[in-house]
Amino acid sequence: MSENTSKQTHGPKGPDVFRLDGRTALVTGAGGGVGAAVAEAFAASGAAVLVTDINKDAAATVAARITEAGGTAEPFALDVCDGDNARDAVAAAAALGNGTLNILVNNAGVIAPAMFPKMDEDRFRKVLDTHLMGSYHCSHAALDALPEDGTGRIINVTSAAGLTGTIGQANYGAAKAAIVGLTKSLARELARQSVTVNAVAPLAATAMTENIRNNEKLAAKTLARIPLGRWAYPDEIAPTFVFLASDAAGYITGQILPVDGGTVI
Questions:
Q1: pLDDT tens for residues 127-151?
Q2: What CATH superfamily is the domain 24-204+234-258?
Q3: Sign of the alpha-carbon torsion through 252, 179, 89, 206
Q4: Residues marked as catalytic
Q5: Using an 8 Å Cβ cutoff, are 83 and 134 in contact?
Q6: Mapping DSSP to helix (H, G, I), strand (E, B) and coil, where does residue 68 land?
């Protein structure tokens, strides 16, 4: 029997294979949009969730919504660019689960669009620091808290911009492409501890896409590239994260899953 097989405990069968009862999750950038929807979906599936955001009031609003619905959640102010802050967040999340953090979702992000000739270094670094270094800080901090029983999950968030490139956001495209490489590398390394690492590439109607959706010309161009011909709501994206966090996806690692209406095919 291999080392990995000996450490893993098989999960429940049937419909319960998608449940997250008894597990703890930390979701970054969860004060709104996809992050909030993911935090709420995790809680509805039985997980205790640390709802983190750089805006603590926004995190508190989401956490309150979860508890009012009967779930378990706590808010936490987290700047993912701060490694010490990330370690504190992991400790707070693990405290919800008796010292264990089962699921980390690296979702926090920003945009700072500009055509490349006008893209100064500060604008470029700001986006890379939040997306890439933020994913590094939180993932690195989570290593000692993730279990080796087959329930450990890191789920990163990338984008079509990181898979096919984009215009006017070279910083964002570069950061999201780097997250693809980070995901695949960590998947190979952490498989030794029975921890899976995957990434989701979503496309949804959120604050981050508001500028595009409110610009008639850009909105039309974007919709023309989406075979399904519409934007998703964040709560349509969240079930993919629940799936990847559950026992149903226990044998999936190193994969990039676009949830974008067919934009990347």
A1: 999 999 999 999 999 999 999 999 9
A2: NAD(P)-binding Rossmann-like Domain (3.40.50.720)
A3: negative
A4: 172
A5: no
A6: helix
Q: How many CB atoms lie within 10 A of CB 46?
A: 17
Summarised one tens digit per residue, pLDDT across range 177-189 is: 999 999 999 999 9
Return the DSSP state at 130.
I
At residue 73, the 3 state secondary structure works out as strand
- Residue 241: CB partners within 8 Å, gap ≥ 6? 38, 41, 42, 105, 155, 200
Cα distance between residue 115 and residue 123, in whole Å: 11
CA 182 to chain centre: 13
Q: Domain limits of the chain?
A: 24-204+234-258
- 116: its two tokens: 């490349």
Place of tokens 């909030």: 36
pTM assigned to the model: 0.93
The span from the CA of 52 to the CA of 155, in Å, is 15
Separation CA 218–CA 44 (nearest Å) = 35
Yes or no: say if 76 and 92 are a contact pair by the CB < 8 Å rule.
Answer: yes
